[in-house]
Amino acid sequence: MNTQDLIAILAEQQGLSKAEARRYISLFFDAMSDALARGERVEIRGLCAFKVKEYKSYKGRNPKTGEAVTVRPKKLPYFKPLAELKDRVDK
Q1: Closest Cα partner for 34 from 21, 7, 56, 52?
Q2: What span, in angstroms and rounded, lies between the C-alpha atoms of 7 and 20?
Q3: Same domain, 25 and 68
Q4: What pTM value is reported for the model?
Q5: 12-45 pLDDT, tens per residue?
Q6: 33 and 52 in one domain?
Q7: What distance in Å separates the CA atoms of residue 74 and residue 46, rounded to the nearest whole number?
Q8: HEC profile for the chain?
């Protein structure tokens, strides 16, 4: 399933035009992205939670040349499925 599929389902089930559904889906994902960018945790009850994990700088190696490189610190979003989703997928 992709964004276009979500838009089509929302439009069909709620009697919206695809443009309206696209606007709602975009609003939803933009709000989630903005919250994560601020370092906030996002939880969708019964489905999943997203949070930002911070990784420290470390020494790595360029796989092509074998040269040692310093990988800078970074923040990455982390997805955690909640128990209800795990149970639903497992059935």
Answers
A1: 52
A2: 9
A3: no
A4: 0.78
A5: 999 999 999 999 999 999 999 999 999 999 999 9
A6: no
A7: 29
A8: CCHHHHHHHHHHHHCCCHHHHHHHHHHHHHHHHHHHHCCCCEEECCCEEEEEEEECCEEEECCCCCCEEEECCEEEEEEEECHHHHHHHHC
Question: What are the tokens at 54?
Answer: 């911070």
Any bridge partners for residue 44, and if so which? 48
Enter the tokens of residue 81.
């499925």
The count of domains in the chain is 2
Dig out the tokens for 60 from the structure: 């790595």
Residue type, 82: L
Domain range for 7 is 1-38
Q: What would you report as the CA-atom Rg of the chain, rounded to the nearest whole angstrom? A: 19
